[in-house]
Amino acid sequence: xxxxxxxxxxxxxxxxxxxxxxxxxxxxxxxxxxxxxxxxxxxxxxxxxxxxxxxxxxxxxxxxxxxxxxxxxxxxxxxxxxxxxxxxxxxxxxxxxxxxxxxxxxxxxxxxxxxxxxxxxxxxxxxxxxxxxxxxxxxxxxxxxxxxxxxxxxxxxxxxxxxxxxxxxxxxxxxxxxxxxxxxxxxxxxxxxxxxxxxxxxxxxxxxxxxxxxxxxxxxxxxxxxxxxxxxxxxxxxxxxxxxxxxxxxxxxxxxxxxxxxxxxxxxxxxxxxxxxxxxxxxxxxxxxxxxxxxx
Length: 296
Ligand code: ADP
Prior knowledge:
The chain has 296 residues and is an alpha/beta fold. It has helices at 17-27, 75-83, 122-132, 137-150, 166-179, 196-212, 224-230, 264-279, and strands at 31-44, 47-60, 64-68, 90-95, 98-99, 107-110, 184-188, 216-220, 233-238, 243-249.
């Protein structure tokens, strides 16, 4: 971990004029995802284990929100509930006002592990969800090719997953998730298995794709640089029990480029995240989500 204390940095609360304007504009947008007082408990070996404790958060239309926190803070539990693979012990999760129950094509998923069907070509992988929804074969093929064009893999439409690099596989996974035109893309450490260089280019690639598609993103990561580079807001969770310790409006303008990694606002945000994640021992109860924002 770099020692950021020796640098004279701006406050992570101080926005550039552009990022401040974006924060204000985002707050005007309709809410797509609403997480309200969400708790999830499990029976642990030594009694009740509170994985998520009264999490409340709203994600707005075409916002990019990351969730970050130490191991065991409930990130996977949260995304599993949002995907419909698990359920709340109390509280609620709603998409466009409707409670999330079970799997639905209104949510696209991209996981860390490569989840492509190895026996299907790239194109047929992307067509899969469309065919399941009842889209005709020709139309599904045309749409799949459009999505492959967007992620830059049209030349590989007839390749099989084992002929692709890790980054290419994740681009197909993104195309497959977006092909169903979900309201929200749920991404669970999607670049976690990639080498640093591929990871960096995938982050830039994802921002370009997201910019051209009408979709909201909820992104789980434990990488501070990744969360800062990609997000409009970062929800920081603390562990034992999993609670929100702070929500940061990222003070960086868009479009983002890798040069931003060296900017004062970037480093100030990263320093704040380091403090919250590595020094924050006891999460506060019921923090106000945007209590500290000076951008609004
Ligand atoms: P993270 O993804 O942030 O590492 P998880 O959501 O995987 O955290 O886990 C949060 C806590 O809940 C951990 O203490 C974990 O052991 C516990 N947990 C998660 N799933 C279950 C389960 N199915 N049964 C019991 N405990 C669980």
